[in-house]
Specification:
The chain has 254 residues and is mostly helical. It is 47% helix and 0% strand.
C-alpha cells in the first residue's frame, strides 16, 4: 500500500508488550533479530502497494482490497479519488456513482454501500477526520481490525501488525508465530518481533509472502532467510544473496 501524496510521518515508538508470559518460539532471539535485519537490508524502506492520497482514501482503498488484488483496486480508485478524496465529496458522489467506479472489484455493490456509510459516519461522528484509534476505526462500516491496523501504521505512524493472507500463511508455514486465527498470529508476532524492527515488520512479511514465500510454491532459492527458516516445506538451506531490491520489485512504478 503505497502513499502517493500523503505527508510522511515518523514512526511512532513501538507499543508496550503485554505483561504476560512470553510466547514460545522455535526461533531464538538472535535468529529473530537476524531474520528482520536481513529483511531491513533487502527492503530498507518497505512500501505497501495500495495507492492513496490521504488517510481517508487509505481507509477506502484498504476496505476495497478485501478479496481483491491491490493492482485491481488501484486501477479503480485512481479515477475515483480524483473526484472524491474526502468523505464529503464521496457522499456528494453517491452510492450509484461509486459503484460505477469500482464495479471491476469483487463484491463491489456491498463495498460501495460501505464506502458511503463510512463516509457518512466520518462526517457525522468524527467531523470528517479519520480517527486515530483502533477502537474508533473499527466502528466504520467495512473496516475490520486488519484495515484499522494498516491505517494506524501508514497514516499515523503507529507500529501495528496487519495480518493478511500472506502474513497468516508465512507465520504458520515457517513456524514464526503459528496460530489458528489472524488475531492469534497478530498477538504472537507483536510479542516476538524485536522492537527496532516492529514498525516495518508487517510490510516486510507481506512482501516476502507476495514475492518469495508464495502460496503455491515457496521460492526458497530466492529467500534471504533460507538458512534460518524452520519450515518443513523448504527446499533449500542456502540463503539468497543479501542485496537491496530495486523499488520497482516491491511497489508500483512511479
Amino acid at each position: 500500500m503505497d502513499s502517493v501524496k500523503t505527508r510522511k510521518k515518523a514512526p511512532a515508538a513501538a507499543p508496550r508488550r503485554k505483561a504476560s508470559a512470553p510466547v514460545k518460539s522455535l526461533y531464538s532471539q538472535a535468529e529473530l533479530k537476524e531474520i528482520f535485519r536481513r529483511f531491513s537490508i533487502q527492503r530498507p524502506k518497505p512500501k505497501g502497494e495500495l495507492e492513496h492520497v490521504n488517510p481517508f482514501t487509505l481507509v477506502v482503498a484498504v476496505a476495497l482490497s478485501a478479496q481483491a488484488t491491490d493492482a485491481g483496486v488501484n486501477k479503480a480508485t485512481r479515477a475515483l479519488f480524483k473526484v472524491a478524496d474526502t468523505p464529503e465529496k464521496m457522499l456528494d458522489l453517491g452510492e450509484e456513482k461509486v459503484r460505477e467506479y469500482i464495479r471491476t472489484i469483487g463484491l463491489y455493490r456491498n463495498k460501495a454501500k460501505n464506502v458511503i456509510a463510512l463516509s457518512r459516519m466520518l462526517v457525522e461522528r468524527f467531523g470528517g477526520e479519520v480517527p486515530r484509534t483502533r477502537e474508533e476505526l473499527v466502528m466504520l462500516p467495512g473496516v475490520g481490525r486488519k484495515t484499522a491496523n494498516v491505517v494506524l501504521s501508514m497514516a499515523f505512524g503507529q507500529a501495528t501488525m496487519a495480518v493478511d493472507t500472506h502474513i497468516f500463511r508465512i507465520a504458520n508455514r515457517i513456524r514464526l508465530a503459528p496460530g489458528k486465527t489472524p488475531d492469534e498470529v497478530e498477538d504472537r508476532l507483536m510479542r516476538i518481533i524485536p522492537d527496532e524492527y516492529l514498525y516495518h515488520a508487517h510490510h516486510w512479511l507481506i512482501l516476502h509472502g507476495r514475492y518469495c514465500c508464495k502460496a503455491r510454491r515457496p521460492e526458497c532459492e530466492h529467500c534471504v532467510i533460507a538458512d534460518l527458516c524452520k519450515s518443513p516445506e523448504k527446499t533449500s538451506d542456502v540463503p539468497a544473496p543479501l542485496v537491496e531490491l530495486p523499488p520497482q520489485l516491491f511497489g508500483p512504478t512511479p
